[in-house]
Amino acid sequence: MTIRPILIHPDPRLKKVCDPVSNVDANIRKLADDMLETMYDAPGVGLAAPQIGVMSRIFVIDTSDKEAPADPMVLINPEITWESEELNTHEEGCLSIPEMYEEVTRPKQVRMAYLDVDGKPQEREFDALAATAVQHELDHLNGILFIDHISRLKRTMITNKMKKLKKELARD
Ligand code: NI
User: Fold this and answer.
1) Top-level CATH class of 12-171?
2) Tens digit of pLDDT for each residue in 64-83?
3) pTM summary value
């Protein structure tokens, strides 16, 4: 397993719609392993392929409690098949927008269909934090960041901070 560098916003690769995975093969399983390793190392509760510059429809999450055993999940070609009318507001952050947190409102529950790492179709319902996480990660596969759900003013402020951070990182 390899820890891959995480792209920081703004980056054109974070604004693109990713391609479906046509074949869940050894390369995809290696990618999923690397993504999980990278996510746990960061640490974060979710990571989407475009965040490491791979433009494929795959993301990983682990929303288990810190004290609980790890519960890694890999979702390939995920699609929302149902969402609740009830909404939920949750503070979100993103490994590509480090140390910035804003409240985002989304459906409280969603059902998602996807392929697992064995290429088998699965469907599962997500609630609360897990629902927020899977919707946030699915957005990444469509070139959408959580800051696209907040006011333009806040988005501009955060983007300017990230531009400054990237300059500082480039200097080191
Ligand atoms: Ni994110």
Assistant:
1) alpha beta
2) 988 889 999 999 999 999 99
3) 0.97
